Amino acid sequence: MRFKRRMGAFLLGAICVAGFAPFHLFLLPILALAGLIRLWSDGRKDSFGTGFFFGLGFFLFGVSWVYVSLHDFGGMPMPFAILATVLFCAFLSLYFAIAGAISDRIPDSKIAKPVLLIPALLALAEWLRGWLFTGFPWLAFGYAQTDYSPLSGYAPVVGVYGISLVSAFCGGLVHLISKKEHFKQASIAIALVFLIGYGLEKMNWTHPEGRPVTVSLLQGNIPQDRKWDDEALSDTLDIYMRLALSSRSRLIILPETAIPMFKNEVPGEYLEMLRIHGKENGGDVLAGLPEMVTEKTYYNSVFDFGKSKEQSYRKSHLVPFGEYLPLKPFSSWILDIMKMPMSDFSRGAIDQKPMDSAGERLAIDICYEDVFGEEVIRQLPEATMLVNVSDDAWFGNSIAPRQHLQIAQMRAMETGRPMLRSTNTGMTAIIDQKGLIASELAPFTRGTLTGVVQGYSGSTPYILWGNHAFLLLDIAMLLAILRRNK
Question: pTM (2 decimals)?
């Protein structure tokens, strides 16, 4: 019986992935959570095991692209890459398992437990996953509500974790409805949650500032296995120069490490051509390229060339084992079995200011950094636009780039700012201040995405509060349960 329960939980977790990009079946995670809540509410005291297997199904199907990064492009032998991927997913599954174990130890009524206790524990575990051990908030449940769902209206107020809490709350109500307990009250509650979300979605928290600006986002489509090849360097430089010079936009943006060499090694005339072209357009060219300060200190950076004075942004939230080595004395052996270039970057400062470029104030983040909403708002409300440069070619032709685009949409919703994404192989896109994709380039194509984008100013509640509003609501739900049990 226990085996069947755990396999059922595994299938629920796997099915849940279809709620996210590129599938967008946003109701599935709510229904899957309802199934998990039922397993945790039946008094069988196996919530640790069922939670673990739910998480295992969820992450094995949702982030299996980790294997692609490790093996296909990182050079890790297949057995090691499979083992590392499974262990990583198993570790992430512990967050579900621990939340389940805690729910078993807090007795409560058949109503309060599924609609208050378990949703609060699930959302809190998800928030902890987002920052503990540097954090991995990928596939937070709130992201599934980004497209088409009225629950996305909660994003500017309580952020992605707040939407996760609301989703789990709805899952608890679905559980009650499925058991024909308090059917009418639970149905009305779900309807109210969605109606409030729909109303919030129609609100304008920010307002236009200044005149719209023309932008061009470049997608070089350089194969990852050739990008760092010295023999392909000349072609890479030529591709991006041609794409840049063919654009007449005021703001031109190249992807993360589009120029795969240290800035001090790039021919001076190459950077000068970018600078002159930016000035001729009356604006700026932003380019991602590594920056070496000393032999042992180098950064993953974005530089501004053009009408404005030269500015730079240094990536501050680095990817463990991909961009830096934690616990170096014990983990340096990993580099011996992997072939990831420049895998020990230094951290940029966390208090960097927006760039003044092309008449806008740009909040820059590089690749993985846009997964952390509370870090993105450090440059707000000063910034009028968000910019993410990325190289998702590390994930190959998997679902990861689409998931990453969905994450970027959530950042636009939370902040009421347009998001400009320039990537090497996809997904290059212009996202409006409501989180809708205004235009995008097809993945694995070479080209330029051009558009006219309006900057925005003002503050959403999320900009002002960050995740504090979600945490206060979540803790209040837990305290209410604990007080009932005194």
Answer: 0.95
